[in-house]
Write a structure and sequence with these properties.
Keywords: ATP-binding, Coenzyme A biosynthesis, Cytoplasm, Kinase, Nucleotide-binding, Transferase. GO terms for molecular function: ATP binding; dephospho-CoA kinase activity. The two termini are about 15 Å apart. A 5-stranded parallel sheet has the order 2-3-1-4-5, sandwiched between helices. It has about 200 residues and is an alpha/beta fold. The chain has helices spanning about 15-25, 30-40, 45-55, 65-75, 80-105, 135-150, 150-160, 165-170, 180-195; strands at about 5-10, 30, 110-115, 130-135, 175. The longest helix has 28 residues, at about 80-105. It has a single domain, classed as P-loop containing nucleotide triphosphate hydrolases (Rossmann fold). The structure holds dephospho coenzyme A and adenosine-5'-triphosphate (ATP). Adenosine-5'-triphosphate binds near residues 14, 15 and 185.
Length: about 200
Amino acid sequence: MTLVIGLTGSIASGKSTVSTMFKELHIPVIDADKISREVVEPGEFAYQEIVKEFGETILLEDQSIDRKKLGSIIFTDEGKRKKLNGIVHPAIRKRMLEEKEAYTKELEKCVVMDIPLLFESKLTHFVEKIVVVYVDENTQLERLMSRDGSSEKEALQRIRSQIPVREKIELADAVINNNGTKEDSFGQLKDILRKWNVL
Ligand SMILES: CC(C)(COP(=O)(O)OP(=O)(O)OC[C@H]1O[C@@H](n2cnc3c(N)ncnc32)[C@H](O)[C@@H]1O)[C@@H](O)C(=O)NCCC(=O)NCCS
Ligand SMILES: Nc1ncnc2c1ncn2[C@@H]1O[C@H](COP(=O)(O)OP(=O)(O)OP(=O)(O)O)[C@@H](O)[C@H]1O
């Protein structure tokens, strides 16, 4: 039986960092953010729907979607965010389930689904165990601004478009406190996996 682990947290809490650690342990990861980029490439159904909804002004010269521009629209307007989610999420879900099925068939001991909006999108039934990666709010804000080069206002808008991480912790089977060093978080991850007999 393949153990399906859901990896989540809040924006810039360290999911991608922890996801790299799973890969170092040779555990495959299905990445919702990566899939969310693939399903909006020109030619895809979701791409056409987004252009219909948001207009050609959100396109770059090469006809691909200007993610910065689309982000500035949807993180300041909840109605528009819901519209975008309604277009993109079904395509993301479908592809994630196909990938999960493939790994399950290959009889992997464990597979990870890295889903930033696991709780917001009510996808907890996709997974058997949930790991939440968290950092305190100041560290989250600092890391987000320095990674994306965004202003405090932009960063806070993104943070506030998600369920607060302290609420997610309550719903987790295991938590990784990523306020410390990456090595420290790697140690916490290995402890969790040993407890679940994956390592
Ligand atoms: C708005 C878009 C174009 C901005 O792209 P950008 O390259 O700047 O950000 P990226 O996709 O790397 O997302 C970064 C993080 O933002 C957060 N985030 C993204 N979309 C959303 C959303 N709809 N609601 C809340 N948080 C979100 C997540 O924590 C994600 O990890 C893009 O995020 C998007 O298409 N979002 C809709 C799809 C989605 O919900 N993706 C996230 C979960 S699968
Ligand atoms: N323990 C750590 N110490 C210092 N910096 C860290 C640590 N963990 C992550 N970071 C840095 O913080 C930033 C956010 O981390 P990461 O990209 O892994 O978050 P995320 O949760 O995947 O974000 P998103 O929701 O946007 O996908 C990155 O620049 C990363 O290198």
